[in-house]
Amino acid sequence: GLTGLNSRFMPYNGALSTNQLDWLKAVLKEASDNKEKVIILSHVPVYPGSCSVRTLLWNYDEVLNILHSFDCVVAYLAGHDHPGGYCVDKKNIHHKTFESPLEVPVGTNAFGVIHVYEDKIE
After folding, report:
1. What is the DSSP string of 38-91?
2. Angle between the 18-33 and 60-68 helix axes, to the nearest 10 degrees?
3. How many other C-beta atoms lie within 10 A of the C-beta of residue 105?
4. Taking the model in full, what pTM does it have?
């Protein structure tokens, strides 16, 4: 079977296409040129420390290379990995994988609130 980072090659993960990667580069370049900050929302995580490696995007490394080539990305929010996770990468991008609503105890709610300020995210 697949082990380590190769275990991400499961049919339920997928990858970004060349067109999607090109679109991401263009959007991040425009944001960078405009001195904007970017929070990316995606279903599938791209940073190994923020989730199980079994739930990573197949071409997570390509996406990270793009994210790391711009200074405008401050956070990457994802789902997919039911237990969730959080970490900050070497470029100070916050990677938060939200816990699945399927994992909450019966009778409780599953939601999150993010407060975005000019100088921080809470």
Report:
1. EEEE-SS---GGGS-GGGS-TTHHHHHHHHHT-S-EEEEEE--STT-EEEE-TT
2. 20
3. 6
4. 0.91
